[in-house]
Specification:
This protein is an all-beta fold and 116 residues long. It contains no helices and 11 strands. The protein has strands at residues 3-7, 10-12, 18-25, 33-39, 46-52, 55-58, 66-71, 76-81, 90-98, 102-106, 110-114.
Length: 116
């Protein structure tokens, strides 16, 4: 029962906020790095953020606006997204990884749309 399930996406106005959740089943999330990725229409998937034992890291495009965190008791990783911009519109995925470099399992994605 290995699963990663994203939730929390939706439609938000520019400048608004969303919190995405990545709930893990079938493994202990704390033992892995967990990354957030996004893919916009017509563009390649890009890394957004990753959390490991050494802390969180962020793409330059979201640094200062997004915050990654984890709740080990709930086996869940979160991505708090503030000051959202239209260019943040994408399907957001979480993935199980190692060293925030190699990923072996992905969730199904959740849609984030930033529009007025």
């Amino acid at each position: 029962q290995l699963q990663l399930v994203e939730s929390g996406g939706g439609l938000v106005q520019p400048g608004g906020s969303l919190r995405l959740s990545c709930a893990a089943s079938g493994f202990t999330l704390d033992y892995y790095a967990i990354g957030w990725f996004r893919q916009a229409p017509g563009k390649e998937r890009e890394g957004v953020s990753c959390i490991s034992s050494s802390g969180g890291s962020y793409a330059d495009s979201v640094k200062g606006r997004f915050t990654i965190s984890r709740d080990n008791a709930k086996n869940t990783v979160y991505l708090q997204m503030n000051s959202l911009k239209p260019e943040d519109t994408a399907v957001y995925y979480c993935a199980r990884g190692r060293l925030c470099l190699e990923y072996d399992y992905w969730g199904q994605g959740t849609q984030v749309t930033v529009s007025s």
